[in-house]
């Protein structure tokens, strides 16, 4: 069984069954990346193009590795060295890549909705690797995979998301996905960084970090975007760290087996204390590894492959 859709644009329109299928498909993919020879022929002959209009370390590299581990031809387009700098439109760039044979276009763009526009104009599959403040569905899926792997379930868990909810595509995608899978989602942050209407998505808002993390099963820390301070959304970085930074003392208010997550990149000493980031409860490195497995699952489900267990040679 595959995903009965051409594209992955967001968590908002994924059903619980589709999320379940992606998470289950990522399990054998993780076995592949643990092998000494990380190569299966599943996507031989398929072309995956990473089209990133914004910087990325984790997402771009993990899509590249995911494609390579399954024998797809993966190509990275950096906008600074492409014809984008000569004024070519997003649509024309993507169409050019498609007529050269792209089966999947993975796109990151600063404009919300950019992947949705591409999906209407391409017959290739489009995967949203982050669009503006809107969604980052593959991050949410790898986060959910990590939670399920460690806790055995998602339903019923108390997940506290801390930070700049207003500008976070990671928060929005996780809220859609976690709520759909039955988690109790809390969002924590200064009132200027938490839109009140977010309650309509079924989350509870906390402005006190101590109250928000109490008895949490998972604390998901978001990067504080330093440019927000210039816009007056919080007084100073030091003040933010004092009021909302996740310290060992605050972690002690959560359940003893709480998981600490961060999508990266981290500002150590701002939104997360270094001893928390490096603690036994932190799964930040596992999130990165799981990102490769989940992206393999998505490429497999969208680009269509053979048996994911089959090895080369
Ligand atoms: N979490 C995440 O999207 O990281 P990158 O910006 O490095 O891809």
Molecular structure report:
This protein has about 325 residues and is α/β, with parallel strands linked by helices. It is built from twelve helices and nine strands. The chain has helices spanning about 15-35, 60-70, 90-100, 115-120, 135-150, 170-180, 210-215, 225-230, 235-245, 250, 275, 285-305; strands spanning about 45-50, 75-80, 105-110, 125-130, 160, 185-190, 205, 220, 260. It has a five-stranded parallel sheet with strand order 7-6-5-8-9. A four-stranded parallel sheet has the order 2-1-3-4, sandwiched between helices. The longest helix is centred in the last third of the chain and has 20 residues, at about 285-305. The two termini are about 25 Å apart. It binds phosphoric acid mono(formamide)ester. Phosphoric acid mono(formamide)ester binds near residues 58 and 59.
Give a brief outline of the structure:
This protein is of the alpha/beta class and 313 residues long. The chain is built from 12 helices and 9 strands. Phosphoric acid mono(formamide)ester binds at residues 56-59, 130, 139, 263-265.
